[in-house]
User: Fold this.
Amino acid sequence: MRLNKFISESGLCSRREADELIIQQRVTLNGEIAVTGAKWLEGMSVLVDGNIVKLKPTTKNKRKHIYIVLNKPAGITCTTDEAIAGNIINFVDHKERIFPIGRLDKNSEGLILMTSNGDIVNQILRSENKHEKEYLVGVNKPVNDVFLRAMARGVRIHRQVTLPCKVSKLAKYGFRIVLTQGLNRQIRLMSEVLGYKVVQLRRTRIVNVKLGTLKPGVWRNLSDSELSGLLPDFTDW
Assistant:
């Protein structure tokens, strides 16, 4: 947890005021003058003006927002419009109001993140962050080296050439691809330009969050380590 968040959740002051205390060198972390951006770990001592700061029991390890990973089955639409049949909101049926981060095509399956925190969306989807997204893809023709090299270099779709990416053969009719951008129907359109048709597409990873053994249609909460790895500079959990 960021030190400013720790101080704020102790009830001493706001996070912004905590930043000012740190800048003014009025905060120590394990006996050392704290610096802006410092992180507090379980067991570390924090003093402000020589006084011990502790988390309130009611706020310790408590999240403000919901963060889940769903193994989306094919046929479910990533929309918040509950009037659309098979929408992801009704499918998950979470007790809190949540929405998908990004999307997967209706016919695609696999990992999709959902949250109640609107501030996190831009952090994950922002193209300059170059967050990796990994997919397993089945196509209608044997995968060859020409196809793999072309996919890796970039393909012209949506009036632009896609960014270079990592591509490797998995089977006669299958390949693995890791993207750092998220154009609409990107893998399907890239394959189509090269004369291939995608027959199955499954996302298995976003940055450090992996689908693992999560069964289709099942969701789980993200762990603290997954959240920290996904957004190392984000603190408003």
